[in-house]
Every structure is written in structure tokens, then in C-alpha cells.
Write a structure and sequence with these properties.
Layout (H helix, E strand, L loop, with lengths): L15 E5 L5 H11 L3 E5 L5 H4 L1 E5 L6 E5 L1 H4 L4 E5 L6 H5 L1 H6 L2 E6 L2 E6 L3 E6 L12 H5 L3 H4 L4 E5 L5 H13 L5 H11 L5 H14 L3 E2 L1 H15 L14 H17 L4 E2 L1 H18 L11 H4 L4 H21 L6 E2 H11 L6 H13 L3 E4 L4 E4 L1
Parallel strand pairs: 1-8, 1-9, 2-5, 5-8, 10-11
Antiparallel strand pairs: 3-4, 6-7, 12-14, 13-14
Helix pairs in contact: 11-13, 12-13, 15-17
Length: 384
């Protein structure tokens, strides 16, 4: 844990989200990680409820007293919680994850029982896009439609896309076909011995020992490299648009966690500059995949923090000003202007495509600012 005098507790567990097309083995990865973990729970988002993830109150059959039963996140304390079909959760179930993913606690106040339970667990989640396949023209927020407040709590977000590659497809097909041979187990063991690959039991024991016995600390050189890489991450391009933020302090904390995890994996009591470089590489790759604004091609962390990029906010502001100008020019002939007429005129004047969704959002923003008023059941507007 990152603890210090006068400072609060910062979580040390890493949260990872896998987003991808169907059939890219996301569920297989989650099950493999669950088998390797010495302590953890595997669950599905579709079959999980809020109390099933946190804790629930039930009546003891013997004493008839109300008792507290732990859920998946509490039972995974000190291990990992694998959540498949993360996008299939309802809003109420996802809302309980906010506290567990950042404060790593679960607060309960039910049936006269008030308690705070530890949920110091890493979360590995897998989600499918809304349209089944990932749409490259949309941002990751629009593809999976998860709350930005929840997405920002993941340290790494990886895209797993099903792209045709002849050599990779041939290698994967051979592996799948080999699983159906009669001597598949012996063949797999011989391949592991030939390639000097650790078996699952040895790897699981190694990970458990590293988690329990190794607690690396930052060296001075690693701390300086972290500062340098964080500044580099915030300013990836000299021509970065003004107002576009590519990283926040949450990304810096994520780099510290990743660097310490790599040092722990090497059983090294000290974090080195190489660990920081690898953590920076992982962060840069994940952000390039998940936080890239499709309209500008630049990394914009606001996509994950707020669900809207800086370029989209600027475009919405410009659209709002154009709408006000149109309403002012049309008000000479009539006080109430039809919304459909404004949209048609705006599309005729604009050099870029104007979607009805963005247009309605701009109208709502102008109404909230009390610059426009809706009349006739929302079909017309007038200046305030």
C-alpha cells in the first residue's frame, strides 16, 4: 500500500478491462487467470447482483439472528475477481463497484448492521461492444456504453480485435485442432517441456510467493524516471491541441502500480528504471487504444473521464453559437422557430456533418443556460 505521513491510503491492486470482438478468447483468459490465482472468484455480469458482489444480510437458521454474508468482491480480498460479460450488468450492480475499485472497501448499512468490509482485490473484467463487433469509428465509451466514472477506475483498457492474419490464423487453428487429438494432453506436456514453459501449478505457486513475500520500493532513479515519463505522457506531441489532456495523476498512480508489479514478478525488492519503462509502455499502448479521439487522432483522457473528448466539447459549443445566430436571424419573421427548420438550416450552412443527437444536445445546453426556451411541446424554440 502507498501510505505516508499525512497522506491517505492509495490502492495497490491493478484493475484491467478487456474489450473486444466475440471469439477472441476473453472468457478463456479470465478463466485461466482465475485458475492461476491462489485466491479469487470468477463470476458473470449477467448473473451477478449488487448484493452478490458486495454482501447481503440473511437470517441464521439456528440463532434466528441477522448475519452478514460476504459477496464475490469481499471473498476475493487479497486475490483477484474475474468478471465476465461486464457490459451486461445493470446500472445498480455497476454502481456498487465504484467504492470497491477505488477505496477497496464495501460499506454496508442493512437490517441494523453497519460495517465496512475489505475488498482489496484486483478486478479483471471482459466486455463486448454494443454492436457485437467493435466499431472503429466510435470511441470506446460509445462502443461499450459504460459510465466514464467506472472506466476511469481501470488502470489498463485493452482492445482485442479479430483481424485476419494468415500466419496467426494458421497457428491458432493448429492449436485448436490439436486439442481434439487422443493424445492431446501428452502432446501439450511434450511441447511445454521442449519450450521450457512452466506448468500451471508452479506458476501459481510462484505468483503467490511473490505477492506474499516481495514488497518492492521505489528507488531514487525510478522516481525521477516516473516523473519524466509522466510529463512525457501528458505531452506526447508538440502540436497537441490546446485544452486536450492526455494523462492525469490517476495514470501516474497506475504507472507506479505497474512498475512495482513488474519488480515483484522479478522478486526484486527495488523498482528499477527498466520497470518504469515497461510500465510506461503498457500505459501508452492501452491509452492509444482506448483514449484516442477518432475525430482528431490524438490521445484525450477526457474520453474516459467524462465520456466526451475536448474536440467534441468544442464542436458542441460552436454548434450552440451557430444555433443562437440562426434563431436570431429567423426571429425577424416569427417569434417561435421550429426545431426542424433550425436543423435543416444548420446542415445547409455547416461544412461538417451535423447529427440530430448532437443538435438536440446543443439545444438542451442552450436551454440549461436559459438562452433558449422550448415551446409547443418542444417542437419550437424562442429566444429567452
Amino acid at each position: 500500500d502507498f501510505t505516508g505521513q499525512g497522506g491517505g491510503r492509495v490502492r495497490s491492486e491493478i484493475n484491467i478491462l478487456l474489450v473486444g470482438d466475440p471469439g477472441v478468447s476473453k472468457s478463456q483468459i479470465l478463466q485461466a487467470v482465475h485458475r492461476l490465482s491462489s485466491r479469487g472468484i470468477y463470476t458473470s455480469g449477467r448473473g451477478s447482483s449488487a448484493v452478490g458482489l458486495t454482501a447481503y444480510v440473511t437470517k441464521d437458521p439456528d440463532s434466528k439472528d441477522m448475519v452478514l454474508e460476504s459477496g464475490a468482491l469481499v471473498l476475493s480480498d487479497g486475490g483477484i475477481c474475474c468478471i465476465d460479460e461486464f457490459d451486461k450488468m445493470n446500472d445498480h450492480t455497476r454502481s456498487v463497484l465504484h467504492e470497491a475499485m477505488e477505496q477497496q472497501t464495501v460499506s454496508i448499512a442493512k437490517a441494523g448492521i453497519v460495517a465496512t468490509l475489505n475488498a482489496r482485490t484486483s478486478i479483471l473484467a471482459a466486455a463486448n461492444p454494443v454492436e457485437s463487433r467493435f466499431n472503429r469509428k466510435l470511441s470506446i465509451v460509445d462502443n461499450i456504453q459504460l459510465p466514464p466514472t467506472l472506466l476511469s477506475r481501470f488502470d489498463l483498457i485493452f482492445l482485442m480485435l479479430d483481424e485476419p492474419q494468415q500466419e496467426e490464423d494458421r497457428r491458432l487453428a493448429r492449436h485448436i485442432v490439436s486439442l481434439f487429438y487422443q493424445d492431446a494432453a501428452s502432446t501439450q506436456q511434450s511441447v511445454m517441456k521442449a519450450r521450457n514453459i512452466l506448468d500451471a501449478k508452479t506458476l501459481s505457486d510462484y505468483i503467490a510467493y511473490a505477492r506474499q513475500s516481495v514488497h518492492p520500493v521505489l528507488s531514487t532513479q525510478a522516481g525521477d524516471r516516473l516523473v519524466q515519463k509522466y510529463v512525457e505522457l501528458r505531452n506526447p506531441l508538440h502540436d497537441q491541441q490546446r485544452g486536450t489532456i492526455s494523462a492525469t495523476t490517476r495514470q501516474l498512480e497506475s504507472m507506479i502500480r505497474l512498475a512495482e508489479a513488474r519488480a515483484r514478478l522479478r522478486l526484486d525488492p527495488e523498482v528499477t528504471e527498466d520497470d518504469v519503462d515497461e510500465a510506461f509502455r503498457l500505459m501508452a499502448v492501452a491509452m492509444q487504444q482506448a483514449a484516442t479521439d477518432q475525430s482528431t487522432g490524438l490521445i484525450d483522457i477526457d474520453l474516459l473521464m467524462t465520456g466526451r473528448s475536448s474536440a467534441a466539447r468544442l464542436q458542441l459549443q460552436r454548434m450552440s453559437e451557430a444555433i443562437v445566430e440562426l434563431v436570431q436571424s429567423m426571429s425577424d419573421t416569427a417569434a417561435d422557430i421550429r426545431v426542424s427548420s433550425i436543423l435543416a438550416a444548420l446542415r445547409q450552412r455547416s461544412t461538417v456533418e451535423v447529427s440530430e443527437h448532437d443538435f438536440r444536445e446543443a439545444l438542451s445546453a442552450l436551454r440549461d443556460e436559459e438562452r433558449l426556451t422550448f415551446v409547443a411541446g418542444g417542437s419550437s424554440v424562442r429566444l429567452t
